Amino acid sequence: MGRRRNAKGRKVDGILVLNKPAGITSNEALQKVKRLFHAQKAGHTGSLDKLAHGVLPLCFGEATKMSGFLLDSDKAYHTVCRLGISTTTGDAAGEVTNEQPVPAIRANELETILDRFRGDIMQIPPMHSALKYKGERLYKLAYQGIEVEREARPVTIHELSLLRLENDILEIFVRCTKGTYIRTLVEDIGHAIGCGAHVSDLMRTAAGPFRDTDMHDLDELESLAGLGLEALDALLLPAERAVATMPELTLIDSVAYYLLQGQAVQVPGAPVAGYVRLFHEDGRFLGLGEILDDGRVAPRRMLRA
């Protein structure tokens, strides 16, 4: 029987909100930060396109148990669009497929067009995406010149604001549900205008409860790494920040004990349904529970002490 390998790195718990730079993948950014922290375990919470930049929450250690809720959270983007030019990928990295003159359009006319894309809409995922078709990533098929039929999926555009319209440049702010493809949204808007369009710059400004004001640059992290790991650790946010909008319950020690043993418990004052943040009476965040049909609280994503 082989020996169990020791985990590389140190145990680090918490969340870092990275300002992912443009030009590298989300995983490449994650690996850079993981090495700086010498962390055993880390993961990101939803990929940003290689050319995109901005808010990318990274979860370390026990905080990775909250990453699924960040994956499912709403996102917000500041997007610069180039009108009149369509590309293979829907962004500036692709090859130009079509060029058309940009029609003269007033802001109020554009607002009427944008209104078609507000609220609940259907989107066809782009070929240049990480979705799978028969076990193969779509973008890999696209690079082989293969295009397959994709089913339209429902997404919700909570907010779509016009920031600037100047010649062939359109700037918009988008707040949307998970799974929304901004490149597809921009292409569809360009098609509705009658000239095509692609994304020339994309910045994610929010992911769940995290905002661009929470971000740290790679250069900042590299500088702090020279001061020691404690300087880096000081930037980490607690795991409960990822689920800050959920209701909370404070548990006395005896009740917390049974929950930590995996047992559902009755807690006075618990919500009637859904997930709930669980705190020990001494203030420690214990993890997440779920309200069962009989009103008891069941442990779901509990953190190790």
Key traits:
305 residues; nine-stranded mixed β-sheet; 3 domains; Archaeosine Trna-guanine Transglycosylase, Chain: A, domain 4; Pseudouridine synthase; 33% strand; 8 helices; alpha+beta
Would you kindly provide a written description of the structure presented here, covering whatever features stand out?
- The chain is an alpha+beta fold.
- The protein has 3 domains: 14-72 and 210-240, Pseudouridine synthase, CATH 3.30.2350; 75-207, 2-Layer Sandwich (Pseudouridine synthase); 246-302, Archaeosine Trna-guanine Transglycosylase, Chain: A, domain 4 (Roll).
- The chain is 21% helix and 33% strand.
- The protein has 8 helices and 17 strands.
- The strands form 4 sheets. Strands 1, 2, 3, 4, 7, 10, 11, 12 and 13 form a 9-stranded mixed beta sheet that branches.
- A hairpin with a 4-residue loop joins β15 and β16 (285-291).
- α1 runs parallel beside α6 (218-225).
- The longest helix is centred in the N-terminal third of the chain and has 12 residues, at 26-37.
Q: Profile the largest sheet.
A: 9 strands, mixed
Number of domains: 3
Reading off the top of the CATH hierarchy, the class of the largest domain is best stated as Alpha Beta
**Structural class of the secondary elements?**
alpha+beta
Uncertain ranges:
none
What's the number of extended β-strand segments? 17
What is the H-and-E element order?
Answer: EHEEHEEEHEEEHEEHEEHHEHEEE
CATH superfamily of the largest domain: Pseudouridine synthase
Please identify, by name, the CATH architecture of the largest domain.
2-Layer Sandwich
Q: Beta-strand percentage?
A: 25-35%
Percent of residues in helices: 10-25%
Radius of gyration: 22 Å
Q: If you average the pLDDT, what whole number results?
A: 91
Number of helices: 8
Task: Return the CATH topology of the largest domain.
Answer: Pseudouridine synthase
Query: What does the overall shape look like?
Result: globular
Give the termini separation: 30 Å
